[in-house]
């Protein structure tokens, strides 16, 4: 049975592995580390472990902690050098804090620092998957953060919402809890009169995206509601649900999941699959969750329908144009004429070759290429569909 409501998150049969993302503003305030709150959260993690659930923590906070130690203004984000130095100093404190508090409950913590490219590269992604799997088998609580001491702006996740979703993919987790400074997704900005929180959302539609705000109420975090919805889309590729909930409460996990006497408070995002589609394999999950590709292949509506509804490979006849420089085997985005990403995949041709054979039938391609054409531009076995059309 799939997860359908917030209370299902506490059921180890429905939710055997939970990723909890903790934002900087939850860990650190103007007075320093929010120790009392953090102790309460660790207690809830211990309770989840006793229920039989694996827990992975994706924790921000290294830059904020390091900036306090170094006495840097702007939370350590005044410059890239400040952020990297703050992260290098703060990560020691952050990992030590988690290890000590989890240890107080008889739990062992493991630190994992990753970069965007660690999860974009297939071999390194598999190494991360294997490490997480072994740690969970040993009863360890992995504490994962982006390695901000070495990443640069163009080669980073930018926030831990998307990192948490990618970690969930790698770990095969069933759910992601994004603890933030807001109770969930509202139908308009929550400060506006009459704003209503959505309890359950099935699939990210243009209407849902229009409700998102790029603002972060605290000003300390680097993400907003837009990045959280992007995390929802990433997690959905692997069939994982995502919950957005407010962490600024005692026992925040229980507040989100609900208790015997009270309903949960948050927004539950359920993955929506194409009708008749099976759960994608591990390679397709990795492909679909990539945040960086080498280029784009623009396709027509007929090709889009064939990919989505028929599970077909992408043929040159359906290609309108190519954008970017890439070679055979490189990851590419397949987009429609409006710019919507339909799928990610591995190209069977260089960009120049696809440009040369676009709109051509297979029996016309050999003359252009000088050799017998391959069966497709992107094969369906090396493609992950990302776009789910709205239900009519």
Automatic annotation (TrEMBL):
Residue ranges occupied by any PUA domain in the UniProt entry? 295-378
Which PROSITE patterns has this protein been placed in? PUA
Question: InterPro entries, per this entry?
Answer: AceGlu_kinase-like_sf, Asp/Glu/Uridylate_kinase, G5K_ProB, Glu/AcGlu_kinase, Glu_5kinase, Glu_5kinase/COase_Synthase, PUA, PUA-like_sf
Catalytic reaction annotation: L-glutamate + ATP = L-glutamyl 5-phosphate + ADP
Organism listed in the record: Novosphingobium mangrovi
Positions contributing to ATP binding: 21, 180-181, 222-228
The source's superkingdom equals Bacteria
For this UniProt entry, what is the primary localization, expressed as one broad class?
cytoplasm
Can you say what this protein is called? Glutamate 5-kinase
Keyword line: Amino-acid biosynthesis, ATP-binding, Cytoplasm, Kinase, Nucleotide-binding, Proline biosynthesis, Transferase
Coiled coil region boundaries: none
Binding positions (substrate): 60, 148, 160
Provide the E.C. number(s) assigned to this enzyme: 2.7.2.11
Q: What does this protein do?
A: Catalyzes the transfer of a phosphate group to glutamate to form L-glutamate 5-phosphate.
A single Gene Ontology MF term assigned here is: glutamate 5-kinase activity
Which family does the record claim for this protein? Belongs to the glutamate 5-kinase family.
Query: Where found in the cell?
Result: Cytoplasm
- Give a Pfam family name: AA_kinase
Q: Which pathway does the UniProt entry assign to this protein?
A: Amino-acid biosynthesis; L-proline biosynthesis; L-glutamate 5-semialdehyde from L-glutamate: step 1/2
């Amino acid at each position: 049975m799939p997860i359908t409501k917030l209370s299902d998150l506490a059921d180890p049969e429905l939710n055997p592995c939970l990723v909890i993302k903790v934002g900087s503003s939850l860990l650190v305030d103007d007075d320093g580390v929010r120790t009392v709150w953090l102790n309460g959260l660790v207690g809830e993690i211990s309770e989840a472990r006793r229920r039989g659930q694996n827990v992975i923590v994706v924790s921000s906070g290294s830059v904020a902690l390091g900036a306090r130690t170094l006495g840097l203004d702007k939370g350590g984000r005044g410059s890239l050098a400040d952020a990297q130095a703050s992260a290098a100093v703060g990560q020691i404190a952050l990992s030590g804090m988690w290890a000590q508090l989890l240890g107080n409950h008889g739990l062992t913590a493991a630190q994992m620092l990753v970069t965007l490219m660690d999860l974009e590269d297939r071999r390194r992604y598999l190494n991360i998957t294997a490490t997480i799997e072994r740690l969970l088998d040993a009863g360890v609580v992995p504490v994962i953060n982006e390695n901000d001491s070495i990443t640069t702006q163009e080669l980073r996740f930018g926030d831990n919402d998307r990192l948490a979703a990618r970690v969930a993919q790698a770990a095969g987790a069933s759910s992601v809890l994004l603890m933030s400074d807001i109770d969930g997704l509202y139908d308009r900005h929550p400060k506006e009169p009459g704003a209503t929180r959505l309890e359950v959302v099935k699939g990210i539609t243009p209407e849902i995206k229009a409700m998102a705000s790029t603002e972060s109420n605290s000003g300390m975090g680097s993400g907003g509601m837009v990045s959280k919805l992007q995390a929802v889309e990433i997690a959905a590729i692997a069939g994982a649900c995502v919950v957005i909930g407010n962490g600024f409460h005692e026992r925040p996990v229980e507040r989100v999941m609900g208790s015997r006497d009270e309903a949960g408070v948050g927004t539950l995002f359920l993955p929506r699959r194409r009708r008749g589609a099976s759960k994608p394999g591990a390679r397709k999950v990795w492909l679909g969750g990539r945040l960086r590709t080498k280029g784009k292949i623009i396709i027509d509506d007929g090709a889009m329908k064939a990919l989505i509804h028929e599970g077909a490979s992408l043929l040159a006849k359906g290609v309108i144009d190519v954008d970017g420089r890439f070679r055979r085997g490189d990851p590419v985005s397949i987009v429609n004429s409006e710019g919507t990403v339909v799928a990610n995949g591995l190209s069977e041709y260089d960009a120049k070759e696809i440009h040369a054979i676009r709109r051509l039938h297979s029996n016309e391609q050999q003359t252009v290429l000088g050799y017998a054409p391959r069966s497709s531009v992107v094969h369906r076995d090396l493609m992950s569909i990302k776009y789910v059309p709205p239900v009519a």
